Amino acid sequence: MIPLMKNAFTNEYETKKALADFILKAPILSMHDMCFKFEEEFSAFQESHDAILFNSGGSANLAMFQTLKNLGLLKIGDKIGFSALTWSTNVMPIIQMGFEPVPIDVDINKLNVTSYTLEERLKEVDLKALFITNVLGFAGDLDKIQDICKNNNIIFLEDNCEALGTELYNKKTGSFGLMSSFSFFVAHHMSTIEGGMICTDNEDISDMLRIVRANGWDRNLKAKKQHELRKENGLKSEFLAKYLFYDLGYNLRPTEITGFLGVYQLQFLKDNVKIREKNYLELEKTAELNNDFEKIDHSHISKLSNFAYPVLCKSEKLKKRYLAQFSGAGIEIRPMIAGNIQKQPFYKKYCSSDYSLIGTDFIHNNGFYCGNYPELGRIGLKTIKSSLQKY
């Protein structure tokens, strides 16, 4: 069996041993110094001004939209564009916040929203924000998307959960928008078991994210900001400040276990990305010899941090054939994330609109993926390559 992900961690035994030692010695296991250290080191890796750690990537997505609502940058009824090929927790916060979700189609050969598909949707509807998903380590032309958003006063957000480490135009994905979210769930590029992060260069956003993360209070803000908020709200007693809540929030805090694992796993991330890219390019060479598959265009990407290997067949009939080949070889496979999100039961329940999504439907009907990770090894690669061949 070749699973989607073999181990919970990179260097699993060493990591578990270090974690056990940390837990035995740590005086505090609720959010504390290790969480803040992980934020600092991840911010440096991502080359962002700030990073805010959460208990999951889904929580990070929820916090982004609550932050924009708290700051008055978005209001109930605003139309929010999102990548139609995405994950449930990218769309659910849009619905939960009372915004109107607007799916943006993806380019078949890039797997992602591009400037072209965005402009096509903007001919039909005005957007207040756009939430891009960088699918499976790939990305669209984010520089042009960024320009379109700037010229149309659209707030640009990125979900970079599947593209941690990918680079294009001399920038990392996750550094083009006002905010970007990351996930450290066990099957991702680096694991903290559960965990998520938001990166941003905007200080007001950072402060509100920390308020949203911790029930609406100011406990994790810098002293200067705490003083400003307390003065603004006429607070005269520091005693009362302990339980004063300034805006809508949740308990989305991580634990010190999350922080420790993040710091520990971060040291392996660059090598992890290199191996994932090497694996992908090797598998791609085999796939390119088979005209049953659509080619994925990543010519604009200088470093490809592939999350999983996508197989995009030219028809549903071919998809059935290769699903059987992969399954027969003992390779664990999945749909192309959540496919066309409009087809999901929750979306049909809460959203009445139905947009044309030609590219997304093609991928939904004809695509699937298998795992790509450092522990795949020569046998795993050989098995997948064999399954990519036409017999």
In words, what does this structure look like?
The chain is 42% helix and 14% strand. The radius of gyration is 21 Å and the shape is globular. The chain has 391 residues and is α/β, with parallel strands linked by helices. It folds into two domains: 12-266, Aspartate Aminotransferase, domain 2, CATH 3.40.640.10; 269-387, Aspartate Aminotransferase, domain 1. Helix 1 runs antiparallel to helix 10 (256-266), helix 2 packs parallel to helix 10 and helix 3 (57-70) packs parallel to helix 4. The strands form three sheets. The protein has a seven-stranded mixed sheet with strand order 1-9-8-5-4-2-3. It has a three-stranded antiparallel sheet with strand order 7-6-10, with no helix packed on it. The model has no long low-confidence stretch (mean pLDDT 97). The chain is built from 15 helices and 13 strands.
What is the CATH topology descriptor of the largest domain?
Aspartate Aminotransferase, domain 2
What separation lies between the terminal Cα atoms? 21 Å
Radius of gyration: 21 Å
CATH architectural category of the largest domain: 3-Layer(aba) Sandwich
Enumerate how many helices there are, as a single number: 15
Number of strand segments:
13
- Overall shape: globular
Given as residue ranges, the uncertain stretches (5+ residues, pLDDT < 50) are none
**Fraction in helix:** 40-55%
What's the domain count?
A: 2
- How much of the polypeptide forms β-strand, as a percent range? 5-15%
Structural class: alpha/beta
Briefly, what CATH class of the largest domain?
Alpha Beta
How confident overall, as mean pLDDT?
A: 97
User: What order do the helices and strands follow?
Assistant: HHEHEHEHEHEEEEEHHHHHEEHEHHEH
**Order of strands in the sheet with most strands:** 1-9-8-5-4-2-3
Biggest sheet, open or closed, and with what strands and sense?
7 strands, mixed
- Write out the CATH superfamily name of the largest domain: Type I PLP-dependent aspartate aminotransferase-like (Major domain)
